[in-house]
Design brief:
Length: about 250
């Protein structure tokens, strides 16, 4: 259990450190950035619509052939997820729903989602701090990084971490999702970032070699000035295809 949480913590730490690199193209803003009003920071069904910012690149788009399962239509669920949820998404009925980006992570007997206490232990925050982020008391626009969800496979420790990166807090407000992942690739001369079709949208994607923490694949997309990163870390014989079966498009 402890080693699994340590591996997840390492992924979260690396996600934040990537943007800790100095930015050469942009200067520090003259005025302090002011976050939006917390109590209005909710996702309405009309705001989703599947229209998100792409990776802003005209390069070839590769079909990942992942997450081809039937989309979840919230209106048809027996117990539909809350639609007026915060940007961080919501945990309901053992699954995680994110109308902000438009996807859902479904928990089952093998794959589980950490609650606030579990995420707090993996991230080094307190449970109250995690809940403040999840429930909109603290805005993702006022922090550098935010962990919205952690799913893990009970027997092997493979995991999926959903993170938000706020480029403006790093003085890199114009950074695209592709540029963010290119930071990950700097240490690996043979690794390239691709634009891929994933969950009905265009994501930037990168596969990193196993350096003892598992085989990592990251998908990133920029949505409303935030870079949203899904990091899959596979252990043992687990495959990305199997893990992605638990993530599908959410229609609100």
């Amino acid at each position: 259990m402890q080693s699994r949480r340590n591996r997840i913590a390492a992924v979260i730490l690396m996600t934040g450190l990537l943007l800790g690199l100095p930015a050469c193209s942009e200067s520090e803003p003259e005025e302090k950035y002011v976050s939006p009003t917390f109590n209005t920071e909710v996702v309405k069904p009309s705001e989703n619509g599947g229209k998100q910012e792409s990776t802003e690149s005209k390069e070839e788009i590769v079909d990942t052939d992942l997450s081809k399962g039937e989309p979840i239509n919230a209106s048809e669920m027996e117990e539909p997820p809350t639609t007026d949820t915060t940007i961080a998404g919501s945990y309901e009925n053992g699954s995680y729903y994110n109308p902000f980006v438009g996807f859902a992570i479904q928990g089952d007997s093998e794959w589980k989602l950490y609650d606030a206490a579990g995420v707090a232990e993996a991230t080094g925050l307190t449970e109250d701090e995690v809940n403040d982020l999840w429930y909109g008391v603290v805005s993702p626009y006022s922090v550098k990084t935010m962990t919205c969800a952690i799913a893990y496979k009970r027997d092997t420790g493979s995991n999926l971490v959903v993170s938000y990166i706020n480029p403006k807090m790093y003085y890199m407000q114009n950074m695209t999702a592709r540029e963010y992942l290119e930071l990950s690739a700097r240490a690996y001369p043979d690794v390239e970032v691709q634009n891929v079709e994933y969950l009905g949208q265009v994501y930037a994607a990168i596969a990193l070699p196993d350096e003892g923490e598992g085989r990592r694949t990251q998908f990133a997309i920029r949505v409303q000035d935030l870079i949203v990163v899904l990091t899959y870390t596979m252990q043992g014989d687990d495959t990305l295809e199997d893990a992605a079966d638990h993530v599908t498009k959410l229609i609100v």
